[in-house]
Write a structure and sequence with these properties.
- Helix 7 packs across helix 9.
- The protein is built from 15 helices and 13 strands.
- 34% of the residues lie in helices and 14% in strands.
- The strands form two sheets. It has a seven-stranded parallel beta sheet with strand order 3-4-2-5-6-1-7, sandwiched between helices. A six-stranded parallel beta sheet has the order 8-13-12-9-11-10, with helices on both faces.
- By secondary structure, it is an alpha/beta fold.
- The protein folds into two domains: 3-213, 3-Layer(aba) Sandwich (Rossmann fold); 223-399, 3-Layer(aba) Sandwich (Rossmann fold).
Length: 432
């Protein structure tokens, strides 16, 4: 029975999905297909290759998961038929969790494989003959070379966040994995940006693909983002200013180094905040506890390095605060994209010192617009030097809005535009 014959309220009936899949969609609360889904799901269902250029938080997982589930329900089989590769353990876990939820009312099985944890549990999961394998390239290749993971029957390959895989040096591993797959298969490649290396991979991998280009270097329109000048020694005080705002109910704070993330989280905890760090020196078990605690709201503040800037989908993050500017302009939109997801509103604050003027210039060039400059009263730069940032010609002085406080900064990526005291009007309707 198809969705169109029984359930029309989800908005996914247009795809004619199996009723068991529709039940999973309905239980997740997805009400209407988002643009990346409407554009790619029909092609995926037809067996076409897909190149999707879209930022994180746009619904990509369901865009590739739903065609995979539909195909598996029709074809059957008890060996891996779909392989999904992701750059980080957190993203692989997130993808697996959503696919499992969507397939809850089917008998399809999934295994997740990634490094940093014991391989034995993952080997046991593979012995149960899952139809779907989600993993990171390094562990997938290791299991493949040991003969534990067999991919001879894979019909669909997904590369998610391919640009980040390149950033992390995974392309050689990916090419080795590709050599072990059947030549006749469907390929789905998703990326937020298209550097020349990923363009070359796409040209080699995809055959007459359906190209859907929704990616934009500019931040999502639901994010109110701004620059806040501050002297380096005053960054902690400025952070406390934003965390004290009434509308700051959940925040991700980004730092440049692992050491700084750990110490800042410790400082915030001692100051009475429910804070936890997420950085690369942590074991997988520690990272899992940090993320699960943040998702469950046992922690209000996640202090992270860029390991969390991609693929971490935590609903309702009200603020992203760049305690340190990112290493590259491209990382800016990925970081602040942790808020304002699924069309909710959010606020992003970036602390800039006199040393960050080059980064500001390059980032504004990349996103194609000026980032509003909103000084906060009581926080000043070195009087002998000011960063090369200019106020937007449009907008209100000091970032104030009608009814707001002059000179007040935006505390988050999405709350009331430019007014730290304005309560954000967030829509809670959830979409896939």
């Amino acid at each position: 029975m198809t969705a169109s014959s029984s359930v029309t309220s989800t908005g996914f009936d247009q795809f004619g999905l199996n009723e068991s899949i529709v039940r999973g969609i309905r239980e997740l609360g997805f009400e209407s297909a988002r643009p990346i889904q409407s554009e790619t799901i029909p092609a995926g269902l037809d067996g076409r290759d897909v190149l999707g250029l879209a930022q994180t938080g746009t619904g990509k997982t369901a865009a590739f998961a739903l065609p995979i589930l539909e195909r598996l329900l029709k074809s059957g089989g008890n060996n891996p038929r779909a392989l999904v590769l992701a750059p980080t353990r957190e993203l692989a876990t997130q993808i697996a969790t959503e696919i499992q939820a969507l397939s809850k009312f089917t008998r399809l099985k999934l295994a997740t494989v990634y490094g940093g944890v014991s391989v034995r549990t993952q080997m046991n999961a593979l012995r149960k003959h899952p139809q779907i394998v989600v993993g990171c390239p390094g562990r997938v290749l290791d299991l493949l070379q040991q003969g534990i993971l067999r991919l001879r029957e894979v019909e669909t390959l997904v590369l998610d966040e391919a640009d980040h895989m390149f950033d992390m040096g995974f392309l050689p591993d990916i090419r080795k994995i590709l050599a072990s797959l059947p030549g006749r298969r469907q390929n789905l490649l998703f990326s937020a940006t298209m550097p020349k290396e990923i363009r070359g991979l796409a040209n080699d991998l995809l055959r007459n693909p359906k190209v859907v280009e929704l990616a934009d270097a500019a931040p999502a329109s639901t994010i109110d983002h701004a620059l806040h000048p501050v002297a380096e020694p005053k960054k902690r005080d400025l952070l406390e200013h934003f965390l004290a705002l009434e509308e700051c109910n959940s925040a991700i704070v980004f730092t440049r180094t692992k050491h700084r993330a750990r110490h800042l989280a410790d400082h915030l905890s001692k100051a009475g905040h429910r804070a936890v760090s997420l950085q690369g020196n942590m074991s997988q078990a520690q990272r899992d506890r940090a993320m699960s605690g943040f998702r469950a709201r046992r922690y209000d503040i996640l202090v992270a390095t860029d390991i969390a800037a991609r693929g971490i989908d935590v609903s309702g993050v009200s603020h992203v605060i760049n305690f340190d500017v990112p290493n590259t302009p491209e990382a800016y939109t990925h970081r602040i994209g942790r808020t304002g997801r699924a069309e909710l509103e959010g606020v992003a604050c970036t602390f800039i010192t006199t040393n960050d003027r080059g980064w500001v210039r390059d980032t504004e060039r990349m996103i194609g617009s000026r980032i509003p400059l909103r000084p906060i009263e009581g926080f000043k730069l070195d009087p002998n030097e000011k960063p090369e940032v200019r106020r937007q010609s449009r907008g209100r002085p000091g970032g104030a809005r009608p009814g707001g406080r002059p000179g007040g900064g935006s505390g988050q990526q999405r709350a009331g535009r430019g007014d730290p005291g304005g309560a954000p009007g967030r829509s809670r309707k959830r979409r896939a």
